[in-house]
Every structure is written in C-alpha cells, then in structure tokens.
TrEMBL record:
Pfam families: ECH_2 (PF16113), NAD_binding_11 (PF14833), NAD_binding_2 (PF03446). It comes from Sulfitobacter albidus. Residues 349-500 form the 6-phosphogluconate dehydrogenase NADP-binding domain. This is 3-hydroxyisobutyrate dehydrogenase. Residues 13-331 form the Enoyl-CoA hydratase/isomerase domain. Pathway: Amino-acid degradation; L-valine degradation. One of its GO terms (biological process) is branched-chain amino acid catabolic process. It catalyses: a (3S)-3-hydroxyacyl-CoA + NAD(+) = a 3-oxoacyl-CoA + NADH + H(+); 3-hydroxy-2-methylpropanoate + NAD(+) = 2-methyl-3-oxopropanoate + NADH + H(+). Residues 503-628 form the 3-hydroxyisobutyrate dehydrogenase-like NAD-binding domain. Belongs to the HIBADH-related family.
C-alpha cells in the first residue's frame, strides 16, 4: 500500500495520508501527489469537493519528512531543501485558494507540515484527540507552510505565544486560534465522510458539528497579551522574566527548548505580516526567506540532529543566551535572489528507467532543473538528485512523464509491458534508447491504446552530451506528444528534431548511424593506406578535412591519435562510443533495410566489418574508431 491513497469516491476527490507508522509525516512524493490531484480535480465537474483524511489514530500528519532534508543539507546540498519547501508552499497556497470546498479531518497530531496540508482548506474538522501545533522553532526553523498567516490572524498576541512555545492546541483551542472550524465527535467522522462522498454537499459538515467546551487558551489570553507585546524576542523574555506567575515560568521553560534565532525571526515575521496587506502569498514568501537559508545560516541542521538523528535533545543553538542581534534577524529575512513562485503548475514528476552511462546524467540534469525525478535501474545504479524507487512500476506511479534509456528493443518491450499498466492515462512515455523501429512502433501502439502519449527520441552526442545537456534528439510521435516532451529535450539537449510519426526518430537514428559506421571505416582505411604510401597523417588530415574527404568522422572525431581535435584515439581508443554499440546500430539498420527491401551494400559491409572486429578480434570495449589500428595491423590479408 502506498504512502498516500488518492481516488475519486462518489462526488468527492479523496486523499488519505497513509503512513500511520510515521505519524503520516509528509514526504516530497506525497506533497507532489496531492498537488497533482488538486490540479486534476479543479476543472473536473464530477468532483464537487475534496476530502482529506489520514490513516491511524495517532496523527493526521505530524509534519514534513525531514530526514532527507538533513542528509542533503549535511552534504552541502541546500538546493534540495529549497525545492522541497518551494513545492510544499505552492501546495499550501493551492489548498488555501482552492475553488472547491476542501474538508480535512484532523485527529491526533497535526503539526508543522501537517498544518500546511490540513489547516488551509475551507472546512477543518477537529475531534476529541486533536492536537495542533507549530513546533518549528524547536528544530531551528520558523512556523511555515502558511502557518504565520494563521498566527498573525490569531487573537491578540496568541500568534507569538503559539509560535514561540510550540504549545499544542486541543480542539477548542484550535478553533479559538483559527486553525480549525468545527468540532465533530470522531465516532461520527466515517458517517460524515460517507455523506460528503455521496452528496458532494459541504453543508453536511455544519450539520454534523457539535459544541465543544472552551479550551485553556481563551483564559490565558490576557496574560499572553501582557507578556508577548514586546517589539523583539528580548523584550518578550524580559516581560516574562519580570512576571511572577506559573504561566510565565511554564512559558519560559517551553521557550528555553527552542532556537533563539528562530524565535527572534518568528516575532519579527508576525510583526511584519500583521496589518492590512496580510495575505497567504506574503506569509509564504516571508517564511521561504527563512527556510531557504535555514540549513546554511540557521539552526535547522543542528535542530534535526538533536531531535531526530542523535536524539540527545541537547541542541547547540547559535545565540544560546537568547541575545539575538537585530542584524542576524534581518539577514535571515532579507529578500532572496530567487523568489518563491506560487503561480503555475508544479514541475513535472518524471519516472526514469535505465540509469546507465547515458540515463544517469540525463536524469541528473532533469532533477537539477527542478523536476521531481524518481529513478529505477535493475543494476541498482542511481542518479544525483533523483529519488530511487524499488521497482520500475513504483518509479512510474503518479508520473506525468516516464523516460526510458535501455540497452535494446526487447528490454524496452519488456519494461513497457511492465510499466504501461501503472502509468496514468494522459501521461507520456519518452523512449530515448536506440532500438529497432518495430519495437518503437509496437510500444507506441500499446501506449496509445491506454491513452498514454509516446515519443521515440533516440539521441546522439554520447556520454559527454548527456552530462553536458547538449544531446540531439531525433523524435517520432504526434505533434502533441512532441510538444509535451520538448521542454525536457531542452534541458537534456541542445536540439530536437521532430522527424514524423512514432518510429521516425529511430529511423532517423539508424540511418544516421549507418552513415557514421561507413564513414568511420572509410576514414580509417584511408589513413591506413596513407601510412603505407608514406604520407604524413597530419598532412592527410589537413587535406581531407578541408576537401571532399570531409566528414564528422574525419573532422570532429579523427581516428588518428594526435591529429585533429581531441578524440578517443588520443585516449588509447577508450570509448566514447563503443564498437559494440556501433555494431548494434548497424544491425538495426540492416534489419530495417531488409524489412522494407532497401539496398544498403555499404551498411551491410560496415556491419560485417564491425561484427568481425567485435566478435572475432579485440574490438569489444574499444572505441568504434579503433578500426584504424585494426586496418594498419592487418594489411590486405
Ligand atoms: P548502459 O548499458 O550504460 O545503460 C543501460 C542501463 O539500463 C543499465 O544501467 C542497465 O542496468 C539498465 N537496464 C537494463 N535492463 C533494465 C530493466 N529491465 N529495467 C531497468 N533498467 C534496466 O547503456 P548506455 O550507454 O547508457 O546506453 C543506453 C541507450 O542509449 C542504448 O540504447 C544506446 O544504444 C543508446 N546510446 C548510447 C550512446 C553512448 O554513447 N553510450 C550514445 C547514443 C545512444
């Protein structure tokens, strides 16, 4: 069972967080899945409202899943966290401004990231076990996920109190503070959810609501306002220390656990936000200024270490004496160079199957561009920035785009048969492997039958092009599917040519490589002949590269060491482009030629020569330009 269950039941778009053993902590994948569902249901007339609930008794959602943030941050990769938060905040804003009712059921703990998922909808239902809190200052963050909006709107100085102490609110307190709307006894939740699913009428929530006895916060409001009115954290601490009451002592004790820098920034944020220009966008933007810097300059990594990794509960905060200079606060909250964008659709979720020499750097470039990449390779290889899945099916589940980069057509067919049933209708499969035209067309037909787009998009440019994002794609498929794939081609390459219908990309690739195989052989045998005629190789290059002997094999990839631009010949013929890959491509072109009765004698001869070289001689594992030493060694015999 996956970590999140998304479906449509009756008139309701249904989202169930399903990681009860981890208190339903929200992973990046879960956040992405919720956003995808909301985007899908926005204009779907069959969906009248959205219901979000969670499995288990203990929590709706105890926060964001921060273990990965810690690992990447420790390794100096701050971009990962920034992308995670940007995606999460965009979702929070979407829930807040969703055009249809969003009803959430908040049992047990709803904290931090859980507040972002559960407390921005139109109808927030609490029950007997509800405990809602913004505990971020305890791990060196600030209240985020739009939490500062509710804190700034809470009565009096309650926002400062809740943010700085991380106090847990039971149902009545949560309603009082503006984090929830109605109390419904939990035993009646299943019946209420069933009614919402059946009728799609949100009035059922009000009907089911019952009264609830007042909580503790209301009674504390006067003391809270008296102690939390100060301009800055230092003033608040002074007021609390000067107050002789149990409330003041308990409050100081709670604040003593939290990061002074985070608390000082929280106070400043709430002060800046309160007022007529308060909005969700402003709140998230200000929060992001802090969180984007939190790993590098804040206490976040230390906070996670103490709370979750080492569990010593003894964080070594900056400004441990709680004397936080105003300049430190200003630095954390100054505008960022890269602003948070809350507009638009999220980045794509991409499943990437086959992370070999080519696939791994291609996947890495997609992840670096901000896409969520979930990879899988049978060999267990990985790609930087990509999440790894347990299986190909898991990698493609929920993906908008799936890319395959596999060794051959049979493997592509097998993988496609495995993953297509798991791909959503409307998603697109892009196969970048070099395979036979028949396999490409057969997979295209299977995909089309399932309402899935398909583009065959083999590449040229080799490993260097894959790493540098400068590949050339030759693509086959419908104009619509090519348009869907184009933004990704732009990231992974410098050029993409739409060659025609499905299979046309592979056709272009094998025709191109048939030319390449033949010209490389022609170039190599010409150099070998030149040697025997006593002609200097450099002179031979100077003439041929500027006259009718010109070709890519001669000019850009010269097979003679020390002549022309740098090429695998200068590195003892280490590939580059391996001779056996050229053999495969020539095999594909001959297979295709036979199928359509095309006369290709040069291609056939090139295939035979590479077959001898790879299978009978020492060509396997050498670059395909190592034909030159082969010809030199053989003579005519
Ligand atoms: P590779 O062998 O390094 O990578 C292929 C990957 O696919 C491997 O990591 C393998 O473990 C994985 N794989 C195999 N079966 C799988 C399965 N069932 N499920 C998941 N993963 C599976 O090869 P490469 O050099 O990356 O080439 C990939 C494709 O790109 C080939 O079709 C090749 O012809 C083409 N190509 C390569 C180059 C080049 O210079 N290497 C240039 C252009 C095109």
């Amino acid at each position: 069972m996956s970590d999140i269950d998304i479906r449509v039941t009756g008139r309701a778009g249904r989202i169930t967080l399903n990681r009860p053993d981890a208190l339903n902590a929200a992973t990046w994948a879960m956040i992405t899945a919720v956003e995808e569902a909301l985007d899908r249901w926005r204009d779907d007339d069959a969906v009248a409202l959205v219901v979000i609930d969670a499995a288990g008794d203990r929590a709706f959602c105890a926060g964001g899943d921060i273990a990965d943030l810690y690992e990447t941050g420790r390794a100096g990769d701050f971009a990962y966290g920034q992308r995670f938060w940007a995606d999460e905040y965009r979702l929070n804003n979407k829930i807040f401004s969703y055009p249809k009712p969003v009803v959430s059921f908040l049992q047990g703990f709803t904290m931090g990231g859980g507040v972002g998922l559960g407390c921005h909808g139109s109808h927030r239902v609490v029950g007997e076990s509800s405990r809602i809190a913004m505990p971020e200052c305890g791990i060196g963050l600030v209240p985020d996920v739009g939490g500062t909006l509710m804190l700034a709107l809470a009565p009096g100085r309650l926002g400062e109190y809740l943010g700085l102490t991380a106090a847990r609110m039971a149902a009545a307190d949560a309603i009082y503070a503006g984090f929830a709307d109605v109390f419904v006894p939990q035993e009646r939740w299943p019946e209420l959810i069933a009614a919402l699913e059946r009728d799609g009428d949100v009035a059922a929530v009000e009907t089911a609501a019952t009264g609830v006895a007042p909580g503790a916060l209301q009674g504390l409001q006067e003391q809270i306002d008296a102690c939390f009115a100060g301009e800055a954290l230092g003033d608040i601490l002074t007021d609390l220390r000067g107050t002789d009451s149990d409330f003041a002592r308990d409050t100081l004790k709670a604040m003593g656990r939290n990061s002074p820098l985070s608390m000082a920034c929280t106070v400043e944020m709430l002060h800046r936000l309160r007022g007529p220009s308060l909005s969700m966008e402003r709140a998230l933007e200000l929060e992001y200024r802090f969180t984007a810097r939190a790993m590098e300059h804040g206490d976040f990594l230390e906070g996670i270490r103490a709370a979750i990794i080492d569990k010593d509960r003894a964080p070594k905060w900056q400004y441990a004496d709680a004397d936080v200079p105003l300049t430190a606060v200003a630095k954390m909250l100054q505008p960022l160079k890269t602003q948070l964008t809350l507009e638009g659709k999220r980045m794509a979720r991409i499943g990437f199957i086959g992370l070999g020499n080519m696939g791994a750097p291609m996947a890495q470039n997609l992840a670096a561009a901000g896409h969520t990449v979930v990879g899988f390779d049978v060999a267990g290889t990985t790609a930087k920035g990509a999440e790894m899945a347990e299986s190909a099916q898991a990698a493609v589940t929920g993906a908008d785009i799936v890319i395959t980069m596999l060794p051959n057509g049979q493997i592509l067919r097998d993988v496609a048969a495995d993953i297509l049933p798991k791909m959503a209708a409307g998603a697109t499969l892009i196969d970048c492997s070099t395979v036979d035209v028949d396999s490409a067309r057969s997979v295209a037909a299977d995909a089309t039958a399932r309402g899935i787009g398909f583009v065959d998009a083999p590449v040229s440019g080799g490993i260097g092009g894959a790493a540098g994002g400068t590949l050339t794609f030759m693509a086959g498929g419908t104009a619509k599917d090519f348009a869907t794939a184009s933004p990704l081609f732009e990231i992974m390459g410098q050029k993409a040519v739409h060659c025609g219908e499905a299979g046309a990309g592979q056709a272009a690739k094998i025709c191109n490589n048939m030319i390449l195989g033949a010209t490389m052989i022609a170039t190599c045998e010409a150099f070998a002949l030149a040697d025997k005629l006593g002609l200097d190789r450099q002179k031979m290059f100077d003439v041929a590269s500027t006259s009718s002997g010109y070709s890519w094999s001669m000019n850009a990839y010269c097979p003679a060491p020390g002549v022309g631009p740098q090429s695998p010949a200068d590195n003892d013929y280490t590939p580059g482009f391996a001779a056996e890959l050229m053999l495969k491509d020539l095999g594909l072109s001959q297979q295709a030629a036979e199928a359509v009765d095309a006369d290709t004698p040069m291609g056939a001869r090139a295939l035979e020569l590479y077959r001898q070289f790879v299978e009978d001689e020492d060509g396997k594992g050498r670059d395909f330009s190592a034909m030159l030493p082969r010809f030199v060694a053989r003579g005519r015999g």
